[in-house]
Amino acid sequence: MGEVKLVEVREKILADNDEIASMLRLQLREKGTLMVNIMSSPGAGKTSLILRTASALGDELKIGVLEADIESTVDSEKIAAQGIPVVQIRTGGSCHLEASMVKCGLDAMHVSDLDVILVENVGNLVCPAEFDTGAHLKVMILSVPEGDDKPLKYPLMFSISDALVINKIDYLPMTDFDVESVKKRAQVLNPKINIFPVSCRTGEGIEDWIGWLMDKRRKFLAPSREERR
Ligand SMILES: Nc1nc2c(ncn2[C@@H]2O[C@H](COP(=O)(O)OP(=O)(O)OP(=O)(O)O)[C@@H](O)[C@H]2O)c(=O)[nH]1
Ligand SMILES: [Mg+2]
Predict the structure, then answer these.
(1) I need a labelling partner for 1 at 20 to 30 A (CA). Which of 10, 47, 199, 207 fits?
(2) How many structural domains compose the chain?
(3) What is the β-pairing status of strands 137-143 and 163-167?
(4) Comparing 1 with 104, which gets the higher pLDDT?
(5) Ligand nearest to the CA of 200
(6) Alpha-carbon separation of residue 164 from 47, 213, 216 (angstroms)
(7) What is the 165 CA–ligand 2 centroid distance (Å)?
(8) Residue 211: inside a domain, yes or no?
(9) Average pLDDT of the segment spanning 74-95
């Protein structure tokens, strides 16, 4: 019987991705542009949170959006309709963004003009957690209709995120979703995670989320390592 040769590609793909991601992160830092990777399952509210955030910060900061979808430009059309600069990345079947795709998207943007770039990752609670996009901040959204057991089922996403936005809290009275148990489950996985219950529909809780983001940006721009903490 002939010999079977096994080539392990996973480690190499992730290492190559990390290299491009680190380069992007550094280049953006030099320009003073904060990039935020927003992840969630399909329909949890990524586009809605981006619209809310851009509308809250639009007078103070120049916001750009990088949209990623397997197909279609519907989300970018919603963003563009609000006058926000947006680039759509069509991943052509890929269920997550990789740093090389983000690089292509950034090449099509006037990055130097922007203070903050909000990246909408592909709707998926699994693979996006594995791939560094080069963003400075990772934010995940869990929406109330998805259920409060998600930290148990998709632990990696909760472990790697800087912030957890619990969206659609206007649905709480109609469900058995337990916000406190989500908080506890997420904090077991990631004691440093910042949690913001919000409703992109009513605007409840959005102020706290914006306050955190602004604080992160202030630290991002701070000259010394000490001030950045
Ligand atoms: N009731 C309620 N509905 C919301 C809220 N946020 C978003 N929605 C609705 O949920 C649906 C999905 O929201 P999107 O913002 O498009 O979600 P998404 O994560 O961008 O979806 P994909 O890009 O398809 O993955 C839309 O019909 C929104 O109007 C909320 O806080 N409360
Ligand atoms: Mg969307």
Answers:
(1) 10
(2) 1
(3) parallel
(4) 104
(5) 1
(6) 15, 12, 15
(7) 15
(8) yes
(9) 94
- Considering only the C-alpha atoms of the chain, give the largest distance between any 2 of them, rounded to a whole number of Å: 70
Residue 117 lies inside a defined structural domain of this protein: yes
Segment 199-224, tens digit of pLDDT: 999 999 999 999 999 999 999 998 76
Is residue 7 situated within a structural domain? no
The residue whose two tokens read 């089922």 is 153
pLDDT in tens, 138-164: 999 999 999 999 999 999 999 999 999
Q: Nearest ligand to the C-alpha of residue 39?
A: 1
Ligand 1 neighbours (beta carbon < 6 A): 40, 42-48, 75, 123, 167-168, 170-171, 199-201
- What's the pLDDT score for residue 93? 87
Residue 15 lies in a domain: no
Centroid of ligand 2 to alpha carbon of 176 (angstroms): 25
Return the pLDDT at 227. 64
Please choose, from the candidates 13, 18, 65, 61, the residue with its C-alpha nearest in 3D space to the C-alpha of residue 38. Answer: 65
Burial of 66 (0-12, 13-18, 19+ CB in 10 A): buried
Surrounding ion ligand 2 within 5 Å at CB are: 46-47, 75
**Which bound ligand lies closest to the C-alpha atom of 166?**
1
* Range of the structural domain that residue 115 is part of: 33-221
